[in-house]
């Protein structure tokens, strides 16, 4: 029920704009920045941001942006970031997480890594279709929930669609994820997926291959 109530909070268009803006940033967002990003007044932004915090969709902390402390350092600013908690609901109730966790546990015990990666690579190939360059790859990855962001010539994936499973079965699930993205990028000109695990990001990045043909 909590997930349904949290998602219902996003039905308000202002809250949705604020949430989308905060979620899209790679840093914590102040009330002033959020208001400017959503095109609304600061007081209205503050009200809706705190509603999003109450619903568990955003997290907040207070910090002085000047980096100074003591007298004259100014008041701490309230900063917002997307919550780490996952939200989902279905009607009637379904529990695919438990099924996925059990299947992953069995696959690990049976050492089915190779078979799982082969299946993931086939799924990636089937889902990809023709991809021509970074823009098309970025759109495809965004549609699959990876939330890609450009970082030089690399697409960093700021969301892992398999986050909960990857925490419980990292070797199995990260290997599957890499194989899936290898399949997605296999037919592209000069793009490749590779492992590059970093805190808070997906374990895979997509980059321009050094073996790209001229």
Describe the structure.
- There is one protein chain.
- This protein has 214 residues and is α+β, with helices and mostly antiparallel strands.
- The chain has 2 domains: 2-82, Winged helix-like DNA-binding domain superfamily/Winged helix DNA-binding domain (Arc Repressor Mutant, subunit A); 96-208, no CATH class.
- 49% of the residues lie in helices and 15% in strands.
- The chain has helices spanning 2-9, 13-24, 31-38, 42-54, 96-109, 113-128, 133-143, 163-168, 170-185; strands at residues 29-30, 58-63, 77-82, 148-151, 154-157, 191-195, 204-208.
- The strands form 2 sheets. It has a 4-stranded antiparallel β-sheet with strand order 4-5-7-6, with helices on one face. Strands 1-3-2 form a 3-stranded antiparallel β-sheet.
- Helix 2 (13-24) packs across helix 3, helix 3 packs across helix 4 (42-54) and helix 6 runs parallel beside helix 9.
- The chain starts with a helix and ends in a 6-residue tail after the last strand.
- This is Putative ArsR family transcriptional regulator.
The total of helices stands at 9
Number of strands: 7
Distance between the termini: 55 Å
Query: Beta fraction of the residues?
Result: 5-15%
Low-confidence runs of at least 5 consecutive residues = none
Which strand order do you get reading across the main beta sheet? Answer: 4-5-7-6
Topology order in helix (H) and strand (E) letters? HHEHHEEHHHEEHHEE
Q: What structural category arises from helix and sheet content?
A: alpha+beta
| Shape descriptor | globular
Rounded average pLDDT: 85
The count of domains is 2
